[in-house]
Design goal:
2 strands, two-stranded antiparallel ribbon, Alpha-Beta Plaits, mainly alpha, 15 helices, binds iron/sulfur cluster, 3% strand
């Protein structure tokens, strides 16, 4: 067998940058939560406490309302005035998925971030990455698509444009952020148990929520399949070391394919970072020509998309006020 000439991959990894982006975004979410708490205190005490304006970013935690707004926009071109920040955040996430794959999950999502940290902790305990057998993994993975299908069917097939607008205008939707606040502020025992179980399961099985249950991730996974950016492996220079396979948090057999086409790939670039051979595993565009997208550009790209969409929203938000 012909011996391969190995040129070492000396490129710097991107995981530190990804961790910084995730941390900043998680801190931002926390700050939004704190601001929203003070806003609700102000309302509850009839203005006896210091005034805090409602942080628009809280709309990002209303995925169903945002999904309905997004669908209304697709069908009518109209951006509904209820929770506009939710629409723009949703829009930016979809755009990100169309350009860079399911990158929101591994670069921004605070639940994805926590799942990753919890998964790392689990690996330290068990000294290995546990994976469910295929017969259990496949049906469980379809759960998130069932949840998404149910939601999409209810909105797309059961609601007319008028019904959609009535819902978005309804008092229920207008105060859904406050309802969500009270859900967590007065969290029930059942909800706590469910969160606790998901937490423990995420220690044992990496990304349990994201992999099996998150309908948001399911939607982004579908959009990501349309993205031209895919992880591609150069079969000629690959030395079949299997490091990419081991590093993949989504259990994708990167070392067995030429192009990763998977709804589970979150463009975390772990596989690219660990590949020891230069120009062997890269994120490239499939069309029009195989153009390499550097790791740095992925980071700049996802942050720019998120920032630009939210900047547009902010300007609209200011105008509305
Ligand atoms: S294939 Fe690579 S980029 Fe995709 S999830 Fe796995 S490690 Fe991350
Ligand atoms: S890390 Fe994966 S792509 Fe890179 S040389 Fe090893 S098997 Fe091949």
């Amino acid at each position: 067998m012909e011996k391969k000439k190995i040129i070492r991959n000396d490129e710097k990894g991107i995981q530190k940058t990804r961790f910084i982006v995730q941390s900043i975004f998680a801190a931002l979410c926390l700050w939004i939560g704190v601001e929203f708490y003070f806003f609700n205190q102000y309302l509850e005490t009839n203005g006896a406490t210091a005034f805090y304006s409602r942080p628009p970013g809280v709309d990002g935690f209303l995925p169903i309302s945002s999904f309905m707004s997004f669908y209304l926009f697709l069908t009518t071109g109209e951006v509904h005035s209820a929770h506009p920040a939710g629409f723009f955040i949703f829009f930016s996430i979809v755009l990100m998925s169309l350009v860079f794959g399911k990158s929101f999950c591994s670069w921004f999502c605070p639940i994805g971030f926590i799942s990753e940290l919890v998964g790392d902790f689990g690996e330290k305990i068990f000294k290995r990455r546990l994976k469910l057998p295929k017969w259990l993994d496949y049906p469980l993975r379809s759960l998130k698509y069932l949840l998404l299908g149910f939601l999409a069917y209810s909105v797309i097939f059961l609601m007319s444009e008028l019904a959609l607008k009535s819902f978005l205008d309804s008092p229920y939707n207008q105060v859904s952020d406050v309802k969500m606040y009270y859900f967590f502020a007065n969290i029930s025992q059942t909800a706590l148990i469910v969160i606790g179980v998901l937490f423990v399961l995420s220690i044992v099985i990496r990304n349990f929520w994201c992999r099996f249950l998150c309908p948001y991730g399911a939607l982004l996974g579908i959009f990501s399949l349309l993205s031209p950016a895919k992880i591609q492996r150069n079969e000629k220079s690959c030395i079949d070391c299997g490091l990419c396979n081991k590093a993949c948090p989504s259990f994708i057999k990167v070392d067995k394919v030429k192009t990763v086409i998977s709804d589970e790939c979150s463009t975390c670039l772990n596989c690219v970072d660990v590949c020891p051979v230069k120009d062997t595993l890269e994120l490239k565009t499939l069309l029009p020509q195989k153009k390499r997208i550097s790791k740095k550009n992925v980071a700049i790209g996802v942050v720019s998309i998120f920032y630009s969409c939210n900047r547009i929203c902010n300007d609209n938000w200011q105008l509305e006020k």
